[in-house]
Amino acid sequence: MEARQKHNRRLRKKLYLGEFAVNLFEIHVKLSTNKESDLDAFIASFVDQLEKQGLTYFGYSDPDGIQGHVLSQQRYESPTEAQRQELSEWCKAYPTMESSELSELVDINQA
Q1: Sign (positive/negative) of CA torsion 79, 108, 100, 30?
Q2: Sign of CA dihedral 58, 61, 65, 68
Q3: How far apart are CA 70 and CA 68, in angstroms?
Q4: What is the pLDDT of residues 1-26, one digit of tens each?
Q5: What is the distance between the terminal CA atoms of the chain, rounded to a whole angstrom?
Q6: C-alpha span between 99 and 15 (Å, rounded)
Q7: Whole-model pTM above 0.90?
Q8: Residue 66, SS3?
Q9: What SS3 class is residue 54?
Q10: In Å, how far are 39, 79, 100 from 32, measured between CA atoms?
């Protein structure tokens, strides 16, 4: 008997395995100011940037910045490395950015 059970296509899709695996990446952003108006402006601009790339975010914000996960808006799709890199560059160029960290792409079931 095999240690690992093989799944048929229907089960792989239902369990988000193999070709149906979905990836995401973590994001940690710290702003150089803790003004609420600066944070609101950053979040509005951040959401616009994500929507342009077909990405979505879930997480939380505090007076210093945001922390959470970024994933694709489409079911069974993952952000690409190019999208991750573009968002990283955008964060670094943001005027009130103190620091930004974006993790590597990881399987959503492992995050």
Answers
A1: positive
A2: negative
A3: 7
A4: 344 668 899 998 888 888 899 999 99
A5: 30
A6: 36
A7: no
A8: strand
A9: coil
A10: 10, 27, 11
